[in-house]
Amino acid sequence: MSVPNDEALRVFAQQVGDRLRLGRDHLVTAESCTGGWIAKCVTDIAGSSDWFDCGMAAYSYEAKQALLGVRPQTLETHGAVSRETVIEMVSGALVNSGASVAVAVTGIAGPGGGSPDKPVGTVWIGWKRRGGYARAEVFEFAGDREAVRRQTVAAALQGLETV
């Protein structure tokens, strides 16, 4: 995936908004490594109040537990950057909002924080529709911190097409 610029992110967010509006759905975001960037992109779209419910930026373990219901055992066993954690994040976002569709992201944007099994650029993204099953996918993005975060926002928005 190439690194999307601001215009590309705006287009992705507009497409998500159009789809959600047509389906009378509302979106909630649960963000760690993007720090609210997905929510910023969607609220940059005029009329997003018709389809955006809320966003939660949960960086710390404590915030993930308090805001999103991520279990301490999940974080201790699998770490914040894992399939298990992102599934609990996306599910908790729906529980703690009035939204019908959720996206969650957790990853290592860098430049530090990586390890041999989870290098910088490792990002888990989860999507879920209320009443449905969560879907999670791992990505290995290249580039600096901004590039990893931009690619994460784009992939998160694009993945909403199939929720």
Describe the structure.
The protein has 163 residues and is an alpha/beta fold. 41% of the residues lie in helices and 20% in strands. The mean pLDDT is 97.
Radius of gyration over all CA atoms, rounded: 14 Å
Total helices: the number is 6
Helical amount: 40-55%
Question: What series of H and E elements makes up the topology?
Answer: HEHEHHHEEEH
Q: What overall form do the CA principal axes indicate?
A: globular
**Alpha-carbon distance between the termini?**
21 Å
* Percentage of β-strand residues: 15-25%
Mean pLDDT: 97
Main sheet attributes: strand count, strand direction, barrel closure = 5 strands, mixed
Name the strands of the widest sheet in spatial order.
2-1-3-4-5
Which structural class matches the secondary elements? alpha/beta
User: Which segments are poorly predicted (pLDDT under 50) over 5 or more consecutive residues?
Assistant: none
Number of strands: 5
Supply database-style keywords.
163 residues; 5-stranded mixed β-sheet; alpha/beta; single chain; 5 strands; globular
Short summary:
The protein is an alpha/beta fold and 163 residues long.
Provide the fold topology.
Elements: H1 6-22, E1 27-31, H2 37-43, E2 52-57, H3 61-68, H4 72-78, H5 83-95, E3 101-107, E4 122-129, E5 135-140, H6 145-159
Parallel strand pairs: 1-2, 1-3
Antiparallel strand pairs: 3-4, 4-5
Helix pairs in contact: 1-6
